[in-house]
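Data deposition worksheet. Section B asks for the primary sequence of the deposited chain exactly as it was used as input, without tags or linkers unless they were present during the calculation. Section C holds the resulting structure in token form. Section D is free text for depositor observations; keep each observation to a single sentence. Incomplete worksheets are returned to the depositor.
Section A, Depositor: J.P.
Section B:
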Amino acid sequence: MNPPHGTSARYQQHIKDGERACKPCKAAAADYLRKWRKRTGGIHGRASAKARSRALIQLKDLHADEFEALFLDQLRAVDQEREPST
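Section C:
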């Protein structure tokens, strides 16, 4: 069952089905994206990932001791998660 027209879900269904989206669905998708960008600040995609990675490297360099402690804590936590519970 397809979602109703005039929704961003139906817009995605149009695309998935290889159809040209109708105007109400395009408008709903644009509205959803506009609200998402406002809510998140529009931060997404490769540029965001690259900037985040660079910022983390700078933080690591500026706060090496704190980073090392956090890293080791997280490494221990991951190891504990992987161990079967008895």
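Section D:
The chain is about 75% helix and 0% strand.
The two ends are 45 Å apart (CA to CA).
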